[in-house]
Structure formats: structure tokens, C-alpha cells
From TrEMBL:
This is O-methyltransferase dimerisation domain-containing protein. It holds the Pfam family Dimerisation. The keyword Methyltransferase applies. Gene3D superfamilies: Winged helix-like DNA-binding domain superfamily/Winged helix DNA-binding domain. Coiled coil: none annotated. Keywords: Methyltransferase, S-adenosyl-L-methionine, Transferase. The keyword Plastid does not apply. InterPro entries: COMT-like, COMT_dimerisation, WH-like_DNA-bd_sf, WH_DNA-bd_sf. It comes from Ficus carica (Common fig). One of its GO terms (molecular function) is protein dimerization activity. GO terms for biological process: methylation. It comes from the Eukaryota. Residues 31-128 form the O-methyltransferase dimerisation domain.
Length: 168
């Protein structure tokens, strides 16, 4: 293999750019893994708050703003719409909800806009159907504190033979 001195400058720059791109992709994936608990917790919060049912009750193809959704929740926090918007953006970034950016009065003014959210085929599994069924209770089970605490004991169970992680 040629050393950097034996490679032409253009080829060295190309190799450097390829290496940099690969490093950025690897770092991006590593960060995704670090924050991997954010998505299920956001999904759980949205389900507990009734977000999916609220949007579904608004009708087929309904697009609601965080303020419109929060108005139908038992929330008395004036910051609820902004906080809810953060949760909904996480879900939209993972294609669990649809999101569009709309300027006030239909204009393209970037300083004055809102984000309406709507259901998509995936989010419909978290809407309670006429029989009272959805994936929400299963999500709640998997996100339950006791279940998650068992996962935290995996390391200790490997180190100490007398501990069984899912036994309590």
C-alpha cells in the first residue's frame, strides 16, 4: 500500500474525506445509541397523555398543533404546548407521527410558524380502538420501572453468581 507521500494530493484528500465521512457516520450512530431511551420514553409519555387518541378523535387526516392537543389534556401548565411539541418532534423524527411546518395564514414567514401533527400508519397502533385495545399497555409494561430495573441488574448478575436479574 502506498504511503501518504506516494499518493497524489487529490487522492489523499479523497481518502481523508472518506475517512471523515465514515467517522461522522460512526459517531452519529454511537450518539443514537446513547440517546436510544429517549424514543420509548417519549412514546410512552405521548400514550399516557392520550395524544394518539386526541388526534384520532379529531377525524381522519386531522392535523393538530401542540396547543390544540394540550388544550384537550388535563394539563394546567402554561408551558405544556411547548413541552408537548418537543415530545411530538421526537416522535415525528422517527416517523411515528407526521409533522409539517406551516406559516401563520399560510405564509412562508419562517419567524411565525406552527407545527401541526397527524397520525400515520405506525401511530394508529397506539390509538385505542372500539374494543379498548392498542399497543399502549404493552408499551407501558416494557417501560415499567420494575421491568427496567431488572435490566440494570444484568451487569451485577454477570459479576456476582448469586444475583438473578429478572427474579424479583
Amino acid at each position: 500500500m502506498a504511503t501518504p507521500l506516494e499518493i497524489g494530493n487529490d487522492q489523499k484528500i479523497l481518502l481523508d474525506n472518506e475517512y471523515r465521512k465514515e467517522e461522522e457516520e460512526n459517531f452519529s450512530y454511537a450518539m443514537q445509541l446513547v440517546f436510544s431511551s429517549v424514543l420509548p420514553m417519549s412514546l410512552q409519555s405521548a400514550f399516557e397523555l392520550g395524544v394518539f387518541d386526541i388526534i384520532a378523535k379529531a377525524g381522519e387526516g386531522a392535523r393538530l398543533s401542540p396547543a390544540e392537543i394540550a388544550a384537550q389534556m388535563p394539563a394546567n401548565n402554561p408551558e405544556a404546548p411547548a413541552m408537548l411539541d418537543r415530545i411530538l418532534r421526537v416522535l415525528a423524527s422517527h416517523s411515528i407521527l407526521r409533522c409539517s411546518v406551516v406559516g401563520e395564514n399560510g405564509e412562508k414567514d419562517e419567524s411565525n410558524f406552527h407545527r401541526p401533527y397527524s397520525l400515520n400508519p405506525v401511530s394508529k397502533y397506539f390509538v385505542t380502538n372500539e374494543d379498548g385495545v392498542s399497543l399502549g399497555p404493552l408499551l407501558a409494561l416494557v417501560q415499567d420501572k420494575i421491568f427496567l430495573e431488572s435490566c440494570y441488574r444484568l451487569v451485577d448478575s454477570l459479576v456476582h453468581c448469586d444475583l438473578i436479574p429478572f427474579s424479583s
